[in-house]
């Protein structure tokens, strides 16, 4: 794996060892940068969205935009001297003619490379569009429409009661503690989205559970659900809750051990989480297709 990416994953492992989910970083100083965006306004996805949103929070960036050095230059901007670049991932394929086993067909290799990006906060001279908004915002503003829409339209009922947050596969139902059991709305919503993340794995949906055997597979699924909650929260403009629901805390150390041995597991989980996030967001507007959703403005 690339050295720059290794450094980021090492940081994630250190935080997990401390009992902290590093992607659950509340935005600094009331900033609400939202979902990480390319220079074109297109949203990053998967692992890039997770890594860059972490950096937005931990480094206090107020802008959602990330640009390469040349993209900034083309827009009339200049990266300030001494600013540190951040890694982003580029997935690529390479076709090798006639090397597939037995058949002599072309073989397609998939690999990743990293490239350097800078947050717009690190760049002088960019157009006004790239500057962070200074307008006051309500971190839970999307709750009424988006979360209520997901709960009403996602084909899994949500019940409240008891002290467990869980998705019950056999019943295809989500169980949540009462709202008042949570310290704040962000904590409640991020936990609820975690459970919706699990619900996307049902056979009738993304079918992730068929091969799950033992603790390691369940830990992988918990990581997918946790990253799904994070990505969906970013899309909805919800400030992440730093709290992890008690039932999920036990997995933090296990994720650290898993990533020490197989850092690529984080990339795999992020890819599955992006699919789950896309499915959940489909239901916030009554089950529109993903193509319809692509025309909607992103939070932030």
Automatic annotation (TrEMBL):
Q: Which organism is it from?
A: Asticcacaulis biprosthecium C19
Q: Name one GO molecular function term.
A: single-stranded DNA binding
Q: Where is the Polyvalent protein metallopeptidase domain?
A: 150-271
Domain N-terminal: residue ranges: 6-118
Domain of life here? Answer: Bacteria
Q: Which InterPro entries match?
A: Antirestriction_ArdC, ArdC_N, MPTase-PolyVal
Q: Name one Pfam family in it.
A: MPTase-PolyVal
**Name of the protein:** Antirestriction protein
Coiled-coil region(s)? none
Q: The organism's lineage? A: Bacteria, Pseudomonadati, Pseudomonadota, Alphaproteobacteria, Caulobacterales
């Amino acid at each position: 794996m690339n050295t720059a990416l290794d450094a980021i994953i090492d940081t994630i492992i250190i935080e997990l060892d401390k009992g902290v989910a590093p992607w659950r970083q509340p935005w600094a100083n009331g900033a609400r940068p939202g979902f990480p965006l390319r220079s074109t306004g297109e949203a990053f996805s998967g692992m890039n969205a997770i890594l860059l949103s972490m950096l937005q929070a931990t480094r206090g960036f107020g802008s959602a935009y990330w640009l390469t050095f040349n993209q900034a230059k083309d827009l009339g901007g200049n990266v300030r001297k001494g600013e540190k670049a951040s890694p982003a991932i580029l997935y690529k394929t390479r076709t090798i003619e006639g090397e597939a086993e037995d058949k002599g067909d072309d073989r397609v290799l998939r690999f990743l490379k990293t490239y350097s990006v800078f947050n717009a906060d690190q760049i002088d001279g960019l157009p006004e569009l790239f500057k962070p908004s200074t307008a006051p915002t309500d971190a839970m503003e999307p709750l009424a429409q988006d979360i209520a829409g997901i709960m009403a339209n996602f084909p899994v009922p949500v019940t409240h009661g008891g002290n467990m947050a869980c998705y019950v596969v056999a019943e295809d139902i989500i169980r949540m503690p009462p709202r008042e059991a949570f310290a704040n709305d962000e904590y409640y919503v991020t936990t609820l989205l975690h459970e919706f993340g699990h619900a996307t794995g049902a056979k009738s949906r993304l079918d992730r559970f068929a091969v799950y055997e033992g603790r390691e597979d369940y830990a992988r699924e918990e990581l997918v659900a946790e990253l799904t909650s994070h990505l969906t929260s970013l899309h909805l403009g919800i400030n992440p809750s730093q709290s992890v629901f008690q039932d999920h805390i036990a997995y933090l150390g296990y994720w650290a051990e898993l990533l020490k041995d197989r850092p690529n597991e984080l990339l795999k989980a992020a890819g599955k989480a992006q699919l789950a996030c896309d499915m959940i967001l489909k239901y916030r507007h009554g089950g529109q297709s993903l193509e319809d959703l692509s025309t909607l403005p992103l939070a932030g």
